[in-house]
Amino acid sequence: MSAGTGAGGGTAPPAAGAPGEAGASTQAQRSPDVVWHAGRLTAEHRAAALGGGGATLWFTGLPASGKSTVAAALEAELVGRGRPAYLLDGDNLRHGLNGDLGFSPEDRAENMRRTAEVARLFADAGVVALVSLVSPYAADRALARSRHGDAGLPFLEVWVSTTLEECERRDPKGLYARARRGELPNLTGVGSPYEAPEHPDIEVTGDEPLEQAVERLLRALGEAGGPT
Ligand SMILES: Nc1ncnc2c1ncn2[C@@H]1O[C@H](COP(=O)(O)OP(=O)(O)OP(=O)(O)O)[C@@H](O)[C@H]1O
Ligand SMILES: [Mg+2]
Predict the structure, then answer these.
(1) In this predicted model, what pLDDT tens digit does every residue of 145-191 receive, in sequence order?
(2) Contacting residues for 84 by C-beta, under 8 A, at least 6 apart
(3) Nearest alpha carbon, ligand 1 atom 29
(4) Which among 158, 177, 199, 226 could bridge 221 via Cys, Cβ 3.0 to 4.6 Å?
(5) How many Å lie between the centroid of ligand 1 and the Cα of residue 227?
(6) Could you tell me the pTM of the whole model?
């Protein structure tokens, strides 16, 4: 069956804002009269066309723990294998989509919410979204997970658990040094808390060889129903 021509080609239109439906919003909706428009394609149609479905891997950990490094290596491996994958790096998103947000708890929550919504769209489109974002609060990470669960999309929380001491030793951006001098009061791990995941899907430690971590993540992605 070719995508878009099958009987009932698209998803059933959900009630606007109904919990668990694709059109549901995580925030009080300010546009209650807007009705969800169901397209002709489902995520399954797109997966069939692309040769595999999308998924989100969410890398959380202290600044300088290695989130971007591991996520970028995984992105390169996936794309090298012909799988669409895209790194949604927290630092990069703050240059555009999230450029209006700071580091207060409220802004961090909004940063997470927007990023989760973008990742969900990528995953729904058939892409493996690789999010590298400190993501210090468990509640915000849980929301990102539930938004994917609502849509039936695989979501894996990857905790890059490099110790604070090691992160501070690396400090490639000099952020820890600045925080210790009192110039960055909100740096996670110094002036702002990091709530470590209690049940991450995968833990990558600071001393794990990169290739080994990528291999394990590929395997977990396959087991979660995503492409490998
Ligand atoms: N497994 C590793 N072993 C040794 N050094 C590493 C490892 N992974 C990353 N690094 C180094 O640690 C530093 C921080 O890595 P990276 O930028 O990926 O961290 P991050 O978690 O994305 O940080 P941030 O939250 O600030 O974006 C870099 O200099 C990187 O080269
Ligand atoms: Mg990074």
Answers:
(1) 999 999 999 999 999 999 999 999 999 999 999 999 999 999 999 99
(2) 50, 54, 78, 126, 127, 128
(3) 172
(4) 226
(5) 26
(6) 0.89
